[in-house]
Amino acid sequence: MSRTLCPSFSLALSVASAGADAGVATAPTGRPNLLVILVDDRGYGDLSSYGATDLQTPNIDVLVANGMRFDRFYANCPVCSPTRAALLTGCYPDYVGVPGAIRTHSDNNWGYLDPNVTLLPAVLKRAGYHTAIIGKWHLGLQPPKIPTRPGFDLFRGFPADRMDNYYTHRRHGINYMRPNECQADPKGHATELFTQWAYEYIEERARDGRPFFLYLAYSGSHTAIQPPKQRLEKVLKREKNIEPKRAKLVALIEHLDHGVGQVVVTLKRTDLYNRTLTIFTSDNGGQLAIGANSGSLRAGKGDIYAGVTRVPACPVWPGHIQPGSRTDYIALTMDIYPTVAEAAGIRPPGGINGLCCRSCFMATCPLKNDSCSGTGAKEADAAKGSLFAQHGSESGNWFTTARSHRWSFTTAEATHSNRLAP
Ligand SMILES: [Ca+2]
User: Around ion ligand 1, which residues have CB less than 5 A away?
Assistant: First the structure.
């Protein structure tokens, strides 16, 4: 199976339907827990393990050191909602109704998640997994578009595109914070709340004993850039020549890194770490205007070049993934869907676009070779040489880009004709 450029809309519909209808195999015993940590707007150069010199992310760096670093992992889109749709559907976001950001106001809304597509948590739930999302959903604001309807047993977080304030959690003056479908008004910094809810969830799962899928979607480091005061002071004291806006972003990132560390500590304390496949990545690159660092890559959020689509990524699975390993295999966010499902021994629905990339970090496959949708060594080589497409809709401009290992091209077209109803 190789990647191809986006075909006609009619094919897009058939792909979505195929994903909705396919059966799901029962998972075998001995299944791993599944933890996907998705951070927001994290530039390729904004981890110390990816080259940042004015920033310290020791906890995420430990994940990278204990797993496989991907050097060419691409977000499916340069903005939030489409990449999140790709992660949870295994499809190119255009195919499932999310070509752009889903927002509060209909005149600025660019997506409507297809209700007929089978989401990753639904696949896992049918196979006996407890499923949860903690943090930012960004794929619909009201029922039936909120997470509990499409397959999550638990939702603690907010469904909107961003928070205008990390402490009040409001967006356009609206309180979107939710436990499941109820409104809540918790106190505290959003990063700390999501971290606390994550480790509380892990503790509950440890007592329950069932395997779980936790999608921990931090809102950091999306604007508004509001680090705790003590974190900012620490950065300013350490980095003498740092620009003020960069200092705030660095402090927010380091604050989130601390949260990731607490989650990992909880996994270890509950004796679940060695039985958990953890995948860390970002939904798109950072905003250069607020001080983000794309490393040596071109441009940042709002553009289409590698600085906004190539993101940090690493899977960690003790006993299965060689610590400190590294790959230049090209993977996309939508590949997480089949990778996670098949790591659990579950055959994903037919018709999805994502490719299981487990074979580049695991010696053996839990599924038999004839039922694995993933890439064997030969297929991985073929996929590396093929194309994929991405789309963006910032400022009303639609971009398409395609890449292989050796080249890329990008087109841009100004149009508002594809705007979708909320
Ligand atoms: Ca984002």
Answer: 40-41, 80, 283-284
Check if the beta carbon of residue 113 is closer than 8 Å to that of residue 132: no
Q: What percent of the chain has pLDDT over 70?
A: 78
pLDDT at 370: 42
Contact partners, residue 407, CB within 8 Å, separation at least 6: none
- CA 310–ligand 1 middle distance (angstroms): 13
Q: DSSP class of residue 32?
A: P
Residue 301 DSSP label: B
Where do the domains of the chain lie, and which CATH numbers do they carry?
7-384 (3.40.720.10)
321: CA distance to ligand 1 center in Å? 28
For the question of residue 6 being annotated catalytic, the response is no
pTM, two decimals, is: 0.86
Distance CA 146, CA 376 (A): 36
Q: Catalytic residue among 80, 314, 356, 357, which?
A: 80
What mean pLDDT is predicted for residues 49-58? 97
CA–centroid distance, residue 62 to ligand 1 (Å): 23
Q: Which two tokens stand for residue 368?
A: 């038999």
For residue 402, report the distance from its CA to the centre of ligand 1, in Å: 20
Residue closest to 118 by CA, chosen among 151, 87, 92: 151
